[in-house]
Amino acid sequence: MREIIGAVDETFLERLMLVFQDLRTGYLVLEDIAEDRTFATWKAGVDARLHARGTAVLSLVSDRAKALIQLAEQGLECLSMPDCFPCMPDIVKSDSLARARQVRSAHKALRTAEDALARHPGLAQAGQAGAEAKAPVEVRRAEVQHWEEVQHTYRHHLETLSLTLHPFGIADSAPQTSAQVTSRLHAAVEAIEALATRHQVPVRHHTMQKVRKQLPALAALVDFWWQGVWQD
Asked: Which domains does the chain have, with CATH numbers?
């Protein structure tokens, strides 16, 4: 018997738990409290449980912790695949805070301009003087609209990225291969970086490079899904 396994270390009730789960059935192969999360600790616990079950591991999905990559490649000698969920926070941490600061700054500047105009209600009357008094408010309002549109576009790219990793194309329901998914994932990541560059938002390129390295392995999940379908 061979299984596709998910592995992760989590803090639960202030204790570090090692969790090793069969993804097809949800069966917990290993769930243990551990003082550390090294390769040796994982290897000892996993070997004992697999021996008791008389099974081997086909592939290991993990959050890319070094010990878990080593467990797959050296300990279990199986394919190591990344989990999709840690990939998304890496992208968000790359430049979302800088973009959010721009949105907050634009809203703050608009409130300041509106407050200044409100303190001099006579300046807001019709005519040339009124138009000139309202001009700073209109400029700040346009900046708010601009950054909110940038934020909306950014979230759309994130949504596209999350919906791409699927055996079927969301738009046309056509079956996808891992090669197609890889290409679309790269396009979504490039769109996120291009958006940041276009609007001069600082981006952590080393983080995005880390994400890029995981994309082919993420896309491989699609091929494994189809292989399971054909086998069934």
From this structure: 2-82 (3.30.420.10), 85-106+148-231 (no CATH)
